[in-house]
């Protein structure tokens, strides 16, 4: 059987905790052949730990040795490296968000089409068991009316890496975490076209000296990204979304909530439940399932590898990831200009 030769670019936290272990679970279809990182010591250590034979300092040289790459660098480099890989004839699986700006995403998409190579973005929430069941259940909800998203952390600003560096990441809680929930809900809704977005972005808590934080040190003076965001989005099909995400907020506890109310029934994803009138009463139906976090990474990796080998249809498509980045850009812009942003 033909195996996909895979290279990993950027071998930090997510590469070592999710992507490499996932590929190692199905070695019959994928072979990890090379790594590259601007931090050569880390690249060599990762290669040794995971028994990967080649280490490169220049990602362009790595392209010669692989059929596909998984890009796990800070957001700033997603577009540049993806485009270079696609131009070299290499399939790309890029960490989320697709890129910092919609213009970069458009260039990535064009490069993928021109090269006729796969480009996919690691929006892994789609591969959770609850999300997969919710996607199937969407056929029963009728027309979607209101979507509610709350991706809330009480005091979890990432105090490591470059997560609070605007130049490297493009933003904070929204572009880092909220993006997953915009992607998941748009996917469940079959990608409705947004017509108007109103967003408000805060960072008051993280700009306060001696702020409590469960995830390490925050330099309040240098902090220049969002830690709490709210938005209201109207779609062409007259459905709407109430969106909120945070890294830091004065709330009771962390919570992850995605629910959609339709004309026939409603559903909630975490945990998965269905709400509908039946037998003259409102019913709540729960699903019996136990999420395995490792399985999510494996399903995601399997879909990418099998799509590259022509054996599966790609689940996380670049056109959809571009829509997520457009929405995030509109939320940030709306907050900056103080009025809603209309999509033409
Ligand atoms: N899907 C998820 O839930 C999830 C979770 C965490 C991180 N991420 C994403 O993964 C990416 C990396 O995050 P991380 O937590 O692994 O960060 P990290 O800081 O742990 O690792 C990033 C690695 O990239 C390397 N690097 C930096 N610039 C580079 C360049 N130009 N070329 C090659 N290597 C470079 C760094 O040296 C480092 O080893 C980010 O885009 C982040 O948004 C996604």
Describe this entry's structure for a reader:
The chain has 344 residues and is of the alpha/beta class. The chain has 10 helices and 15 strands. The chain has helices at 13-24, 40-49, 59-62, 78-87, 102-115, 129-137, 166-169, 173-188, 293-308, 318-337; strands spanning 4-9, 30-36, 54-56, 68-71, 91-94, 119-121, 144-152, 194-202, 228-235, 240-246, 255-262, 266-268, 273-278, 281-286, 341-342. Helix 4 (78-87) links the parallel strand 4 and strand 5 (91-94). Helix 1 (13-24) packs across helix 9, helix 4 runs parallel beside helix 5 (102-115) and helix 5 (102-115) runs antiparallel to helix 10 (318-337). It is globular and about 60 Å long. The chain binds nicotinamide-adenine-dinucleotide. Nicotinamide-adenine-dinucleotide binds next to helix 1.
Summarize this structure as a short list of keywords or feature phrases:
globular; 2 domains; 344 residues; 33% helix; 15 strands; 10 helices; alpha/beta; Rossmann fold
């Amino acid at each position: 059987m033909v195996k996909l030769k895979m290279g990993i670019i950027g071998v930090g936290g997510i590469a070592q905790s999710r992507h490499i272990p996932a590929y190692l679970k199905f070695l019959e279809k994928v072979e990890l052949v090379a790594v590259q990182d601007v931090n050569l010591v880390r690249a060599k250590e990762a290669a040794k730990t995971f028994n990967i034979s080649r280490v490169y300092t220049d990602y362009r040289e790595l392209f010669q040795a692989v059929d596909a790459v998984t890009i796990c660098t800070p957001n700033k480099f997603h577009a540049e490296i993806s485009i270079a890989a696609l131009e070299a004839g290499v399939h790309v699986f890029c960490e989320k968000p697709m890129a910092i700006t919609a213009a970069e995403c458009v260039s990535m998409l064009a490069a993928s089409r021109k090269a006729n190579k796969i480009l996919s973005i690691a929006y892994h929430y789609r591969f959770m068991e609850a999300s997969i069941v919710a996607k199937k259940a969407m056929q029963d909800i009728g027309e979607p009316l209101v979507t509610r998203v709350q991706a809330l952390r009480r005091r979890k600003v990432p105090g490591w890496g470059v997560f609070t560096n605007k130049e490297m990441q493009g933003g904070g809680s929204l572009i880092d975490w909220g993006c997953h929930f915009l992607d998941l809900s748009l996917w469940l809704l079959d990608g409705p076209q947004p017509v108007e977005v109103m967003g408000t972005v805060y960072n008051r808590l993280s700009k306060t000296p001696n702020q409590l934080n469960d995830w390490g040190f925050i330099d309040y003076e240098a902090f220049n990204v969002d830690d709490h965001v709210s938005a209201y989005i109207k779609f062409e099909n007259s459905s709407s979304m109430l969106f909120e995400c945070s890294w830091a907020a004065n709330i009771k506890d962390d919570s992850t909530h995605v629910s959609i109310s339709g004309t026939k029934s409603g559903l909630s994803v975490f945990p998965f439940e269905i709400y509908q009138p039946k037998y003259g009463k409102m019913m709540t139906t729960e699903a019996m399932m136990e999420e395995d976090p490792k399985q999510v990474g494996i399903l995601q990796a399997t879909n990418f590898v099998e799509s590259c080998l022509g054996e599966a249809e790609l689940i996380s498509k670049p056109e959809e990831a571009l829509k997520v980045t457009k929405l995030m850009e509109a939320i940030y812009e709306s907050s900056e200009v103080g009025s809603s942003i209309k999509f033409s």
